[in-house]
Amino acid sequence: MDILADILLLLGALGLAAHCLVLSRRLRALARSDEGLGATIETLSQRVDALTRTAARATEEAEAAAARLATLTREAERREGELSFLLAGLGEEGDEADAPEAPPPGAVPRFERPPAALRGAGAAS
């Protein structure tokens, strides 16, 4: 019976030794991955900072472009008003009986061929 107890005690000690060896290897692997994990976290943090700066710069540029576009739109609307005023003034100066009918907005302008007498005069000069 004593021999059986000694054998069981020896097997238990060997089992614990094997378990300690496995735990030691896992702990070493965790320590190595912890260093690698720290470096990975630092790299990711740097990339996030760079992306944040890039996004802020892109936002600033987009806001500047939007402001410039708004300014150009206002200028175009102002000039469109001036152009409409000038065109209205030109229409009043001409003889309305001789003036051709204005095409509807968005229509493609149509050009007519000059009379034969004018075509010949242009070719002779």
Large-scale geometry: rod-shaped
Give the helix tally: 2
Structural class: mainly alpha
Oligomerization category of the chains in this entry: single chain
Radius of gyration (Å): 45 Å
Low-confidence stretches: none
Q: What's the overall average pLDDT, rounded?
A: 80
Distance between the termini: 137 Å
Return the string of H and E elements.
HH
Helix content: over 70%
Strand content: under 5%
Q: How would you characterize this protein structure?
A:
- There is one protein chain.
- The chain is mostly helical.
- It is built from two helices and no strands.
- The longest helix has 92 residues, at 2-93.
- It is rod-shaped.
- 0% of the residues are buried.
Topology record:
Blueprint: H1 2-93, H2 116-124
What descriptors fit this protein?
about 120 residues, single chain
Write a brief caption for the model.
With 125 residues, the protein is mainly α.
